[in-house]
């Protein structure tokens, strides 16, 4: 329970480094895990001491996602909004050009959460709401990838091992939560997350993993530039 979920992203990170291209993997997955889910879950533990294994899992997941985020930024595709400055999000949220901007944001976010816990940490209503909020948003983890797959009509760049890890891990943890009788928040959100995994499996069957048009155009442009340079 503690080590398995973070290791799911190891093969995804290796694939991105090997190809030097993060096309196909949604960085918003990192946003959900870093900005919302895992930090909220850690603070939830301060008010409601669930199993240590789940707390350790959250800490290891934070470290894994920080590393994966760095890799995604370093090898982001040439067609990304940061490259052209075309982000349509307010304040270009989670589409910043440098890794340090992400770290600065996360540091400020953790400070705000710590202040809220110090003020309202003894309120059972606040702690319960925090748990539902953290785990509810964690259950939306596969949704950005689901949307990205739909837009590309392909699962290119999204490793089958990551999908298998999501589906297998979520199926296991759903059963685990029910057998261990963990807080209701864990069980409800695990069921929802597993249903999204099933939808992505369906996309994998329908769309396959052929390169999308955007990736083919980027490769064509890079080839043309290389030819021009060789001629010079």
Automatic annotation (TrEMBL):
Q: How does it sit in the membrane?
A: Multi-pass membrane protein
| Keyword Chaperone among UniProt keywords | no
Subcellular location, record wording: Membrane
Q: What's the main place this protein lives?
A: membrane
Q: Name one Pfam family in it.
A: PQ-loop
Q: Where are the transmembrane segments?
A: 52-73, 102-120
Q: Which GO terms describe its biological process?
A: phospholipid translocation; retrograde transport, endosome to Golgi
Keywords (A to Z) from UniProt? Membrane, Transmembrane, Transmembrane helix
Q: Which domain of life is it from?
A: Eukaryota
GO annotation, cellular component aspect? cytosol; endosome; membrane; trans-Golgi network
Q: Which InterPro entries match?
A: PQ-loop_rpt (IPR006603), SLC66/Scramblase_ANY1 (IPR052241)
Its recorded name reads: PQ-loop repeat-containing protein 1
- Organism of origin is Gymnopilus junonius
């Amino acid at each position: 329970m503690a080590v398995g979920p973070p290791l799911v992203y190891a093969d995804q990170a290796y694939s991105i480094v090997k190809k030097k291209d993060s096309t196909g993997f949604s960085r918003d997955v990192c946003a959900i895990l870093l900005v919302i889910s895992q930090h909220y879950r850690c603070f939830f533990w301060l008010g409601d001491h669930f199993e240590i294994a789940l707390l350790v899992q959250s800490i290891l997941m934070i470290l894994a996602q920080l590393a994966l985020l760095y890799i995604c930024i370093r090898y982001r595709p040439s067609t990304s909004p940061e490259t052209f400055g075309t982000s349509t999000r307010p304040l270009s949220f989670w589409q910043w050009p440098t890794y340090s901007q992400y770290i600065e944001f996360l540091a400020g976010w953790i400070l705000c959460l710590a202040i809220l816990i110090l003020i309202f940490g003894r309120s059972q209503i606040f702690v319960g709401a925090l748990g539902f909020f953290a785990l509810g948003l964690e259950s939306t983890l596969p949704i950005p990838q689901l949307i990205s797959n739909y837009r590309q009509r392909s699962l290119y760049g999204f490793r089958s091992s990551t999908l298998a890890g999501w589906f297998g891990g979520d199926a296991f943890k759903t059963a685990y939560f029910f057998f261990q009788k963990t807080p209701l928040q864990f069980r409800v959100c695990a069921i929802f997350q597993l249903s999204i995994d099933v939808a992505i499996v369906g996309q994998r069957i329908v769309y396959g993993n052929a390169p999308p048009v955007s990736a083919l155009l980027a490769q064509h442009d890079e080839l043309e530039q290389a030819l021009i340079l060789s001629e010079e």
